[in-house]
TrEMBL record:
Organism encoding this protein: Sinorhizobium meliloti CCNWSX0020
Lineage: Bacteria, Pseudomonadati, Pseudomonadota, Alphaproteobacteria, Hyphomicrobiales
The protein, known as: Transposase mutator type
Protein origin, superkingdom: Bacteria
Length: 42
């Protein structure tokens, strides 16, 4: 039913940053270092 929470539904909460989970040699970390997205608004 819409709006009702199932009893066995798992709630997930994560403390910290997703960046902490990504290794420093990952391709997206390397791209982030050289790509300037400061013009992009959130």
């Amino acid at each position: 039913m819409l709006g009702r929470k199932e009893r066995d539904q798992l709630e997930l909460y994560m403390c910290g940053s997703l960046r902490d989970l990504v290794p420093d040699d990952h391709i997206l970390v390397k791209v982030d270092r050289v790509l300037d997205l400061s013009w992009l608004h959130e």
